[in-house]
Amino acid sequence: MTLQNLPADVQAFLAPAKLNLMLHITGRRDDGYHLLETVFTFIGLYDTVYLRCRDDGDIVLHTLIDGVDAEQDLSVRAARILQQASGSKCGADVWVEKRIPMGGGLGGGSSDAATVLLALNHLWQTQLSREALMALGLQLGADVPVFIFGRNSFASGIGEELSELSIPNQWYVVVKPDVHVSTPKIFAHERLTRDSAPSIIRVFPRVQPLRNDMQAVVCEEYPEVAKALAKLNQFGHALMTGSGACVFLACETEAAAREVCAQVATEYEAYCVAGLDQHPLSTLK
Fold this sequence. Notes:
By secondary structure, the protein is an alpha+beta fold. It has helices at residues 74-86, 108-123, 130-138, 144-149, 183-187, 215-221, 223-232, 254-264; strands at 11-28, 34-54, 59-61, 91-97, 153-156, 161-164, 171-176, 238-240, 247-251, 269-274. The protein has 8 helices and 10 strands. The strands form 2 sheets. Strands 1, 2, 3, 4, 5 and 6 form a 6-stranded mixed sheet that branches. Strands 8-9-7-10 form a 4-stranded antiparallel sheet, with helices on one face. It is globular, with a radius of gyration of 19 Å.
């Protein structure tokens, strides 16, 4: 069965990518987790999660990722954890149509997991609150709660302490270098900045040049990322998102973003996308 030939009773739910418009590392906990401050914004680049309820309790993933066991897939784990927390006897067939580049710092896997939690909470009528779903999501990864929270946010802690942040309407050019960055390698790097001063961002200015504390060591270890940044920096102030490898440039207008995207797309996998005011499932109950 292909994604072009899905059952008629399947329902589709969007899972947007995210960008980190800034990322500061302010310390490290005794358990090894790093303390962060970051600004999350959702962008109009989506995976699509297709779901169909089952009455036998089975969770069946129909779109397997090479090298990833189905039970380790974040979407399956999200469904399992919701079953356990709610006591639901329902199951689900799951298909994930990937458009968000994998391993690029855009949060695709985390977003897919959040969408599964939100959508199955609705379809199974388990009636867990957003706060309860966010707590479940944190067990799957530090980026999952923000997708459940559903709003552009300032995040602290390990990424789970969220407050809504208004971000001006912007367009983004996102570039994916042909390299996979190892997040554990970067977090363990001896020259990683871990002592940025904490701050409180209450208003996010339009297209303000900010920084990502991981960017310097990623560029040192992965020259492909440095090269992509240099390319985008010809048009403005580019920044890496998350732990990489994707880099992005904020633009004030769609026309400006499309012009830049056309120029970099001859050399890189590139996307021209709008920033979102909120997650597409932010009002789902």
